């Protein structure tokens, strides 16, 4: 499905070319998602710069650049051996399995033209802000022209913008906000693992049991109707989970108004897959994170959140899940419960973590106010 989407998106070249030809006056620049490599050809033909939009953070982009330019991966033979990323001040370590390396031939055919077009672009815009990862922004700007435009999620001018960003859901916004209003401040754990989660039923069951065992109120978002979510919904009803957590747990099937939820005062933590959009939305809301990376750049984002920014708790996932991977047992109820306890801990470490998360949220909102004043 994902490969088909990439392929289909890049079949729009002829149509976009015709639109570009008819535009008066001609645009001075093309800003396009880095995945739309055909836009570089159009920019070249019309002699205008093309700027790529990156859906990653600067830390992730810099790690990727340093790994490639150093050729260190050629010396690593094991997928499970930890090694240090060269060229960083901090000791940041990954395994090869945790990196978004392209090994499948069908994916290579998709990624190679994308990568080449991105390299040839005039520069890139990134959904991050300098106050969040200043050292990595500075270093990455030495490599290529870059502009930080984030956090994009705060740019919505009204609540309607944040509410109408996805498909149908099992609950409306008013019900969700009413439920949140009934909870204590900073008490609710929001658990959402993104729109392309590869997690199977056994893991989701353990995640649910961990949320239940924590005795904390929670919102648990499940992907829209598919075989796995159907299994989970069936289990929730037949096992008695729904009845046992009534009033304390809110389950949303399908899309959730995430930005609205995260910005509510009742939210005390965000259990996330560490996709960059979700990660920066949590950071911008000033919420500490529980990290459950699955694939792609998500392990990199986890390192930034837990090790560098120190605003998150690691659930302990070391191995990625791939599309079609049937492996089970990498999430356990007790690990979820313990991570939640660690996040809400009232000791110095927990207090400092929440304080740092709040400070980053305030910095993000301050940037939004500054941008409004400048415009």
TrEMBL record:
It comes from Gossypium davidsonii (Davidson's cotton). The keyword Glycosyltransferase applies. The keyword Transferase applies. This is UDP-glycosyltransferases domain-containing protein. SUPFAM superfamilies: UDP-Glycosyltransferase/glycogen phosphorylase (SSF53756). One of its GO terms (molecular function) is UDP-glucosyltransferase activity. It holds the Pfam family UDPGT. Keywords: Glycosyltransferase, Transferase. Belongs to the UDP-glycosyltransferase family. CDD domains: GT1_Gtf-like.
